[in-house]
UniProtKB/TrEMBL annotation:
Domain HTH asnC-type: 4-65
PROSITE patterns named among the record's database cross-references: HTH_ASNC_2
Top-level taxon in the UniProt lineage: Bacteria
Keywords recorded for this protein, A-Z: DNA-binding, Transcription, Transcription regulation
SUPFAM superfamilies per record: Dimeric alpha+beta barrel, Winged helix' DNA-binding domain
UniProt xrefs under PANTHER family: LEUCINE-RESPONSIVE REGULATORY PROTEIN (PTHR30154), TRANSCRIPTIONAL REGULATOR AZLB (PTHR30154:SF34)
ATP-binding is among the record's keywords: no
Protein name, UniProt field: Lrp/AsnC family transcriptional regulator
Organism: Marinicella sediminis
């Protein structure tokens, strides 16, 4: 699938709002009949525009009330060091996002925990004890003003 037409874009927009929508309702929302709509969704999935479907959970209701951005500087940029770090990131349930960055730090991570004590334990006993981190800078998130997974589909 090379280019997306207005039907494809409409499908993507609706699915971002509610991925559990039934195919008939989706077809009606985007002005298609059910079978052509289903075919388009399958093509969007197969071509990688739709990677997966998820349920978005309320972190507060799950007792996860502390979020922070943690900037990380690596001790070195040896391939083994980076692999140790990336393996740690993949296995840690505390890390929601991790991005390589340009600037004073190598990575920035969005981290979640139940409370500040759990965050401190994660930082001191897990992240920093991994042996590959030179330094970190942690910014607590006081209040979340916007959080979305929706991309600006036009």
């Amino acid at each position: 699938m090379n280019e997306l037409d207005s039907f494809d874009l409409s499908i993507l927009k609706v699915l971002q709002e509610d991925s559990s929508i039934h195919m008939q309702a989706l077809a009606e929302r985007v002005n298609l009949s059910k079978t052509p709509c289903w075919r388009r969704v399958k093509k969007l999935e197969e071509s990688g525009y739709i990677r997966k479907y998820v349920a978005l959970l309320d972190h507060r209701k799950l007792g996860l009330s502390v979020m922070a951005y943690v900037q990380v500087s690596m001790k070195d940029h040896d391939l083994n060091t980076l692999q140790v770090f990336l393996d740690f990131v993949e296995q840690s349930p505390y890390i929601l996002d991790c991005h390589a960055t340009a600037g004073n730090f190598d990575y920035v991570m969005k981290v979640i925990a139940a409370d500040t004590e759990e965050l401190e334990n994660f930082l001191m006993r897990e992240l920093l004890s991994s042996g590959v981190i030179q330094s970190t800078n942690t910014n607590l998130i006081l209040r979340q003003k916007k959080s979305t997974t929706e991309l600006p589909v036009k």
